[in-house]
Amino acid sequence: MEGWQQQGGTRDSGAWSATPAAENDGRFPMELRLPASEVPSTKSSGQWAVPWSEQQQQAAAEEPEPKKKKRLWLVVGLVVLLLVAGGVTGQLVRPVPEPELKLTLPATSHTFAGTAPQLPWSGQGQASVYVDGLGTMGSSGGGSPTPTASVAKVMTAYVFLKNHPLKPGEAGPERAVSAQGVAELPARRKRGESMLGITAGQRLSERKALEALMIISANDVAHELARWDSGADQAFVRKMNEAAKALGMNDTTYTDPSGYDAGTVSTAADQVKLLTAAMKVPAFAEVVGNRAYVPADGGPARPGGNILLGRLGVVGGKTGYTDKAGGNYVFAARKKVGGVSTMIVGAVMGQRSPSAVGAISVAQRLVQAAEGALTSVTLAPAGGRVAQVDDGLGGHTPLKTDVPVNVIGWPGMTVPIGVAGDPPHTGAAGDRVGAVTVGAGKIPLVLESKLDEPSPVQRLLRLS
């Protein structure tokens, strides 16, 4: 507009300013000035715009500090949230540890007071006494192999039943005796061997053959069983030696199925191993539990040689005698100790007497002493807490037994106590989940209450 002059004003006025007319051509008393920072400039668009100073442009480019901090904290918070969410998910989906059984009894073993029993050994030959599940109570006479005589028939019966099992009470298949067996009888009679006296055309059931073998110690039947199983003596003898090796009878060699051959040798300790295994075969235990052999045709009964059977808890065994072997006897006796049926197994070999009776007399004293030495201590009553399931995350579920926990042994003996089994992750009260072990014995463990999986909180808080 005419008469007005555009001048640069002070920066901090922020508006048009008036200047005296003396500073212009004098036609107006004053003029309006626009601050220099707001002097319009023309852009290519032809529109007016207020020019910015360099400092203002830099200030506009820089974001305020509080906004930057706020955005940073938002990013950090989001990262933390994602990490927490991932950690929680990871903890929840991670497999839980396998639960373990843990003993809660105050000790992991029990030692019986006193000194080890001194058993009444004979002073000749060798002997060994073993308590099944506990160990050897004692032995004497060293461990040199000695002729077994008819005690070898324990292995003959054991191998035959392994290859031809019998159910309890079952007679089993019948077989005709061989012509070879009948032909061998005269020589056996001449040597004075013990025999059933098989006849041509005679048929024997498996059970009757085993009874003749073990009760009246029939050598002729021992060889018949070998032929029935393997076709010939030596093939069967190989099986006898293989079985001995499998049982850990390292000082035993069989050369015949009857034991008449002096080359069939063993030790008292090895024969204890064999009889312990054989007595766990139900049909074998039934056979050796008979006092007499009764023929299938109803003929007269023939008494057996195990005169201790039925006395002092003796439930089975086998005698043997030859001039070279002397008197031999293996026996098994049962005795209840602390309400638990315990089996004592022993062997007496090489007794210099005119028959096996000398060995039986020694065994009688050993049985009495062994039974007298056995004792029992109750570690926990029936229903008592003895263990627990540990879920690995801090959870424990108590376990109890339905019967008393008794430890059996003899003075000076230490019996280990522990637990065995793989418990489940869940279970109902009363479920069986393992066993408490006392020596080689096992007593079932049951859940006292419900067993649950670890809770979500336990899963989240676990450190491992």
From TrEMBL:
Residues making up the signal peptide according to the UniProt record: none
Entry similarity comment: Belongs to the peptidase S11 family.
Residues forming the catalytic site: S150 (acyl-ester intermediate), K153 (proton acceptor), S217
Domain of life: Bacteria
PANTHER family referenced in this protein's UniProt entry, alphabetically: D-ALANYL-D-ALANINE CARBOXYPEPTIDASE, D-ALANYL-D-ALANINE CARBOXYPEPTIDASE DACB
Keyword Membrane: yes
Amino acids binding substrate: K318
Entry annotated with the keyword Membrane: yes
Organism: Actinomadura macrotermitis
Keywords, alphabetical: Cell shape, Cell wall biogenesis/degradation, Hydrolase, Membrane, Peptidoglycan synthesis, Signal, Transmembrane, Transmembrane helix
Segments crossing the lipid bilayer: 72-93
Name the record gives this protein: Peptidase S11 D-alanyl-D-alanine carboxypeptidase A N-terminal domain-containing protein
GO MF terms, alphabetically ordered: serine-type D-Ala-D-Ala carboxypeptidase activity
Domain Peptidase S11 D-alanyl-D-alanine carboxypeptidase A N-terminal intervals: 147-347
Gene Ontology BP term (one): regulation of cell shape
Short name of one Pfam family: Peptidase_S11
Gene3D superfamilies: DD-peptidase/beta-lactamase superfamily (3.40.710.10)
InterPro entries: Beta-lactam/transpept-like, Peptidase_S11, Peptidase_S11_N
Ranges of biased composition (kind: Polar residues): 1-10
Region (Disordered) location: 1-66
